Amino acid sequence: MTLDKVKTGHGGVIVQIGGQGMLRRRLLDMGLTPKTRVMVRKVAPMGDPIELYLRGYELTIRAEEAANIEILPDEENKNEQHVGE
Description:
- The protein is an alpha+beta fold.
- It has 3 helices and 5 strands.
- Strands 4-3-2-1-5 form a 5-stranded antiparallel beta sheet.
- The chain is globular, with a radius of gyration of 13 Å.
């Protein structure tokens, strides 16, 4: 699931950062790296921009940028933990 599809108040762990060149580098530089937990805090009325919470700070990015961030949603993380128990 990509980050632009996540509902407010939900989140997960970043699996992959897509995009190319400067866009990808910019996302990584902002702390959006694989294995980082991220939560969607707010979404503007028209769906853009999106406010995220990660690493103890808020970050606002465009929905177009969020579409390049693949996450494993919290619900799936919980299911995987129970499978191994």
